[in-house]
Write a structure and sequence with these properties.
19% strand; Rossmann fold; 11 helices; 301 residues; six-stranded parallel β-sheet
Amino acid sequence: MIHLAKVTPERSRFLLGLVGAGIQASRTPPMHEREGGEQGFRLSYQTIDLERLGIGPEALPELLVSAERMGFAGLNITHPCKQAIIPHLDELSADAAALGAVNTVVLRNGRRFGHNTDWWGFSESFKRGLPGAGLDSVVQLGAGGAGTAVAHALMTLGVRELILSDRDRSRAEDVAAALNDRFARFETHRVRVSEDLAAEMAAADGLVHCTPTGMDKYPGQPLPAELLRPELWVAEIVYFPLETALLRAARRIGCRTLDGGGMAVFQAVEAFRLFTGMKPDHERMLRYFVELGSEAKEATT
């Protein structure tokens, strides 16, 4: 069951938050606040940065209680808490339960409802940013909370063979097994774990990157640049910076690319609806996301 708030004269203000580590540069808070203002109500969105507070996911129970006591309507959840938050929730949406990852928590009437809007966010971004992209064989790096959602999205988009590569092989195997079970009705669409990344990259139509590598906090490239080739499309979920080292290398040789901005916006579009009960203007949120990026660039030059 989807639990939505409704904007009424009694509830014309919303207090929201983002829980994660190293999130000070996130564009999510101002994006939500701006859309709330455009919709005609007040929305205050706070960052709860575990890194700055010197705590880890083990503090989630205390943070949830505090958010409830302070009147938060909901929380967005990001790395490294998307899976750790689940035991502390009362109910999960079908998507969140299937994916085993939550990025949106609605707090309502003393109960905590977990949702996953990441998979829909990636799917919407992919359809708009890489129309006509080949989907016969796709390599995905990373099978954590966000990676699980992206893998689900890729299967709904029609990928015939999805190859998962993760430093934790058992985690990738668990995700592959769950996806194969969930999409068993599509006999020709399968998920497997990487055995030879170089060979798989040489035969793939596309690459999706779903690890923190490339973020300002975790600089670098998730795989050797020589594994890229011009015929490959490359999609990224990291959006700060918007152009990661991986995307730079891919664009340099002529690959079609998709940055992480679209996923960031579209997951926020659905989260906003869940938090407030109001349908946001996704085009307006996309424009504001781009504006925020331009402002950030100007501030550092």
